[in-house]
């Protein structure tokens, strides 16, 4: 599980996905994407300290059979930190090392991942129909994948429903992966 978030709102969602993978019998190792903003900029933005997780590298990707990513939205696409990471994988793509393997954000991310031969496993409705169609609260998540709504300052934390959807996705994801490998 690899993730990045300036305000850490994705951390709880990532933990729930990891719990779902483990509940289904899988093993999940957490990584984070390297920060590209300077400490000066982060301080001015009042960004919280990053968690003590290893930084994902292109080489680490090749040691796993599957990976799931927590990607925040920046203008309907992944943020610069994710772009910098995927740009750093061009050597893997050129050598053929990676040849298997919120709605607009996921959709736009697929463009980059497709060129790496990454198989996308959506959440769909099969395992979370009731949660995704729950109209008792405004919530993140869709058939494309788990998600959360966060205020621009990160003050809104994922709701229990959003975390439940993330855990369901982790469990469903691992169910597909363990059959494939």
What do you see in this structure?
This protein is mainly α and 181 residues long. It has eight helices and three strands, in the order βαβααβααααα. The chain has a single domain (2-180), classed as Rossmann fold, CATH 3.40.50.360. The protein has helices at residues 9-23, 39-44, 58-61, 80-87, 90-95, 104-114, 129-132, 160-180; strands at 2-3, 31-32, 69-70. It has a three-stranded parallel sheet with strand order 2-1-3. Strand 1, helix 1 and strand 2 form a beta-alpha-beta unit. Helix 1 packs across helix 8 (160-180).
A few lines on this structure:
This protein is mostly helical. It has helices at residues 9-23, 39-44, 58-61, 80-87, 90-95, 104-114, 129-132, 160-180; strands at 2-3, 31-32, 69-70. The model has no long low-confidence stretch (mean pLDDT 85).
Helix and strand arrangement:
Blueprint: E1 2-3, H1 9-23, E2 31-32, H2 39-44, H3 58-61, E3 69-70, H4 80-87, H5 90-95, H6 104-114, H7 129-132, H8 160-180
Parallel strand pairs: 1-2, 1-3
Helix pairs in contact: 1-8
Distance N to C terminus: 17 Å
Total strand segments? 3
* CATH fold-level name: Rossmann fold
List SSEs in N-to-C order. Answer: EHEHHEHHHHH
Total helical elements: 8
* Overall residue-averaged pLDDT value: 85
CATH homologous superfamily title: Flavodoxin domain
Global Rg = 16 Å
Low-confidence stretches: none
Would you tell me the structural class of the helices and strands?
Answer: mainly alpha
Helix % is 40-55%
Strand content: under 5%
From the spread of the alpha carbons, the general shape counts as: globular
Sheet having the most strands: 3 strands, parallel
Number of domains: 1
Q: Quaternary status of these chains?
A: single chain
Strand order of the largest sheet: 2-1-3
CATH C-level class is Alpha Beta
At CATH level 2, the architecture is 3-Layer(aba) Sandwich
